[in-house]
Design a protein that fits this description.
This protein has one domain: Alpha-Beta Barrel (TIM Barrel), CATH 3.20.20. The chain has eleven helices and 14 strands. The strands form four sheets. The chain has an eight-stranded parallel β-barrel, surrounded by five helices. Strands 4-7 form a two-stranded antiparallel sheet. Strand 9, helix 5 and strand 10 form a beta-alpha-beta unit. Helix 3 crosses helix 4 and helix 8 packs across helix 9. The longest helix is centred in the middle third of the chain and has 17 residues.
Amino acid sequence: MSAAPQLELPRLGFGAAQLGNLYRTTSDEEADGAVAAAWEAGIRYFDTAPHYGIGTSERRLGQRLAGYPREEYLVSTKVGRLLLPGPGTGDDMDSAFAVPDDYVRQWDFSEVGVRRSHAESLQRLGLHRVDILFAHDPEEGPTEQAFTEGLPALARMREEGLVRAVGVGSKDVAVLLRAVRTGLIDLVMLSGRYTLLEQAGAEELLAACVQHDVGIVAVSVFNSGLLAQHQVPENATYEYAQAPAAMLARARQLARIAEQYSVTLPDLAVQYPLRHPAVRSVVLGMRTAAQVRSNAQRMSTEIPTAAWADVERTDPDAAAGTVARTAAQPGTAAGGPVDGTR
């Protein structure tokens, strides 16, 4: 039986990819300030992964959570990539993390690999348990092994009481839909496919999640930067590349609606996914205390009902073709600098 209904997720979660030096070094002072500000803002859900900085994010997050009561917060991490000794002669910037290549990633969704990954994550985090385990980006690794071995292993670990909930994290809607239909998982971490900007590609997945009582953790809700600023610049990015003209126009249309109701485009972007009954939390990547406070403010801003009605009346068809063409393009597997983590 699904464990997810017993696990209440907060509306806003802290995405810790930036603690793993996503794109650039995050100083210890920035990391200290971000986690402290998150706690002060009432954030009690923290998401990380071995992939983020090849273990750096897990270690730094665990160190900073050590001073807080364990029973008061939730932690999710991920499986599918084991960390093995690396050459130690360069860096990890090919994977977008500014860390030494002291470790390398190796795909492994076998039961032995999943359980080993979990145990090693606990060691790096300095915790006796994590609350949620996600199979991480199975579409990028050995997909069939993830389904035939990895997901059943996660379900057994949940039944053994090692974790409270299990799921799959991906930007690939088809993979997530297949995972939901196995009946084995409690949650999906959906990256960038159900946002203020675009929804059509996730309709079947959302319906399946409701049918199977699977919750959604929405990440990359700023669509890799396009919705991150109220004034949408010409060089705004979508799917980690220059946003097409149709996408820029759509984002600016949504910004005008926000402005009519004295709120901002990022305010709408942060809260929009939670309007669907399957979405239980929005996780945002945060590097600094200022980003944490800004995101917490966005989540707490009151959005008039009329604003949502105007959003629903807009016609996204002009951008729909662009979405269809770009959704399958690969982006970083770690989420954008102003997005949630994957």
